[in-house]
Write a structure and sequence with these properties.
This protein is α+β, with helices and mostly antiparallel strands and 162 residues long. It contains four helices and four strands, in the order αβαβαβαβ. It is elongated.
Amino acid sequence: MLGKISIILIYFFFLSYSVHYLWKTSNLTAEEGYIFEEPYKRTTNKNENENNLVLYFKQGSDQIPKPDQIELQNIANQLIKNNDYEVYIFAHAFEGKSDAHDLIISEKRSLEVERFLKIHFVPENRIRRLFFGNSKISSNTLSTSAAALERKVEVKLVRMDR
């Protein structure tokens, strides 16, 4: 009987476990972020088209997120290496306040991306900037996560017509 109990306890021990961090005394912290219902929509498919980039912004912010700055730097490098391309910046906003406020925020986001490209030596005559506010969103009744997906700037490299 004692043998069966010890076998069951050993079996149970291997099936269940818990992790304890005795040496860690500080609280865990995290940065503010968003939970996306459909996270696959948030990223771009590099195999599909390497000349496109979508940048997502926090609500009310026009600051380019740090990870996206690296991708935007790659776009700037492509533009510098290849004079046959120009960049189109399409900025969107859905902040939920008013149409005028959304238009201003989308303009600020497009200006920030344009400024980033100029700092990285992309000629001004090869940058095209458009901002739409909330006029090109997918639906008027958006959930919190869907609204977060509408706070974006699309960057597209296009071959120039000569």
